[in-house]
Design a protein that fits this description.
The protein is α/β, with parallel strands linked by helices. The protein folds into two domains: 147 residues; 307 residues, Metallo-beta-lactamase, Chain A. It contains 20 helices and 15 strands. The strands form two sheets. Strands 6-5-4-3-2-1-14-15 form an eight-stranded mixed beta sheet. A seven-stranded mixed beta sheet has the order 7-8-9-10-11-12-13. Strand 2 and strand 3 form a beta hairpin. Helix 2 packs across helix 3. The chain is elongated, with a radius of gyration of 29 Å. The chain binds zinc ion (ZN) (2 copies). The site of one zinc ion has 7 residues, from helix 11. One zinc ion binds next to helix 11.
């Protein structure tokens, strides 16, 4: 047996196999480092944003790069026992998986990954064993001496005992964590602490197609103490709450048009903003012709719930006079297709007509506050009115749709026999703006910073963003941001700066 395992051919074959494992581990590590979202989203089914992506890149990247590094070091040096370093990590990974299968409440199977890790560990260990049995083994691996040593074994045993105690005490740890988490959840909103200025937040940056990273359209604009909520697509109220936007203090909800990805959450938003502030007058909802019937419809749908809330909480939370919305139709558009909808000494809010035919009319909004400005395009093709409203603004939040990427989706849907999906993908080509067109508008209107929102088709990973933006950065030389739920842009008076923050964790 020793002869068979230790002969030159076996030693060489196991060494090559260990080398292959080392290269694979290194490649996995590199791909996590370069595009953590692709590995996270498509291979590991993780839904990560912001800090999560950063951790994935750093932690998981380091694990795989480290394993690959020691595997190759073991293969190419005479210290074959170095292969035991990645083996230890693989054993710990498998251990974690087995614990996960027994205690995690998710219906997951990671059998494929487990088998892969077992094979990797087997190949790496084989190379160590065959080399040790060969005619020219290296000096005894010091690692064994280090392990079988009381100075190591005692602390290791303490760690194991602590782990067992921690597992047994999970309910207690959970309730402690909950108390800690709650104080974090009800802590002061970052938004209320913002300095005086024009603050633009993105609570929903998606479109009707499902995007795991983006909910329906919602942009909020805080100008000094005045808060406006522009559109309220599906899921956006929860995002506004997670971003700790004080929705109960909003002056008005401004609707751009009545497509569902812009209004589906109106009922929820009216209800929450009513009870959070114990509002005594209905929330003002401004929009174009048809806004009365939209608001009345949501009011009617939520009327029973409003009754329940009052019955349960009374006037202190749910004064009946404040339930629901109060519609106001925006009128009085001038020759330049715009009209002022709100004005104070410092703040002007302007609505302007855009081209989203057959949805007619549809508007975008411009906010001017103490010398800083933002335009929110709404859904539109490139139009004159938008161009003139965007002239010289600091920030242009513009919708964008990539036709080539949509065409791929269209083709795939057709091939899969999903004719309706293919037909929708085809129809929407004619009433949205392409990324390069948005860039051209930003360039020609001398915009300070372009944010592309209403992302179509869905972009589940940031690694796709450069492909989505296409040639935009060649056309427009200013900063371009592909919108993500949770972003906040702060424009302080007296500066040209735009500060960026991330309010969804
Ligand atoms: Zn839309
Ligand atoms: Zn639309």
């Amino acid at each position: 047996m020793k002869k068979l395992l230790g002969n030159d051919v076996t030693v060489t074959v196991t060494r090559i196999l260990a080398g292959v494992v080392g290269v694979i581990l290194l490649l996995i590590g590199l791909s996590i480092l370069i595009m953590p979202e692709v590995v996270g989203t498509f291979l590991l089914s993780l839904s990560t944003t912001g800090a999560g992506i950063n951790s994935l890149r750093a932690d998981l990247g380091a694990l795989f790069l480290g394993m690959g590094f020691f595997a190759l070091l073991g293969v190419f040096s005479r210290y074959r026992w170095l292969l035991l370093v990645p083996v230890v990590f693989l054993v710990l990974v498998m251990f974690g998986r087995l614990i996960g299968v027994s205690v995690d409440p998710f219906p997951i199977t990671t059998t494929g990954a487990l088998v892969g890790e077992l094979i990797f560990a087997f190949f790496l260990s084989s190379a160590v064993v065959t080399h040790a049995l060969s005619s020219k083994p290296e000096p005894r691996p010091p690692v064994l001496k280090a392990i079988f040593n009381l100075r190591f074994l005692i602390p290791a045993a303490v760690v194991v005992v602590l782990l067992i105690i921690a597992f047994a005490a999970r309910p207690q740890i959970g309730s402690r964590l909950w108390s800690g988490a709650i104080s974090g959840m009800i802590s002061q909103s970052e938004i209320e602490d913002l300095p005086d200025g024009l603050h633009v937040g993105l609570a929903g940056t998606g479109a009707p197609m499902p995007d795991s990273k983006r909910v329906g359209q919602s942009t909020f604009v805080m100008a000094g103490k005045h808060l406006f909520l522009v559109d309220c697509g599906a899921g956006s109220t929860l995002n506004l709450e997670l971003m700790k936007v004080p929705i109960e203090t909003a002056e008005a909800i401004l609707l751009t048009h009545f497509h569902s990805d812009h209004i589906a959450d109106l009922g929820e938003l009216l209800l929450k903003s009513w009870t959070y502030g114990a509002r005594t007058e209905p929330m003002l909802v401004m929009g174009l012709e048809g806004v009365e019937s939209v608001v009345e419809g949501f009011n009617m749908a939520f009327r029973l719930d409003a009754k329940y809330r009052y019955a349960h909480h009374g006037d202190a939370v749910a004064p009946p006079s404040g339930a629901g919305g109060r519609a106001k139709t925006i009128m009085g558009f001038g020759e330049d297709k715009s009209t002022v909808v709100f004005q104070t000494d410092d703040l002007t809010v302007t609505a302007f007509l855009v081209d989203h035919r057959p949805v007619e009319p549809a508007v975008g909004y411009r906010f001017d506050y103490k010398g800083r400005s933002v335009v929110v395009s709404g859904d539109t093709l490139p139009t004159e009115s938008l161009m003139s409203q965007a002239e010289g603004v600091d920030l242009l939040v513009h919708e964008a749709m990539n036709p080539e990427m949509l065409a791929v989706l269209n083709r795939e849907a057709s091939t899969a026999g999903q004719d309706v999906a293919a037909s929708v993908a085809n129809d929407i080509l004619t009433y949205h703006t392409f990324p390069e067109e948005a860039a051209r508008i930003a360039r020609d209107a001398n915009v300070g910073h372009l944010v592309m929102t209403h992302i179509l088709p869905p972009m589940p990973a940031a690694v796709l963003h450069p492909a989505f933006a296409g040639d935009s950065d060649r056309i427009y030389k200013g900063p371009i941001t592909i919108a993500h739920d949770g972003m906040l842009f702060s424009l302080l008076p007296g500066t040209n700066e735009i500060e960026e923050k991330w309010l969804l964790r």
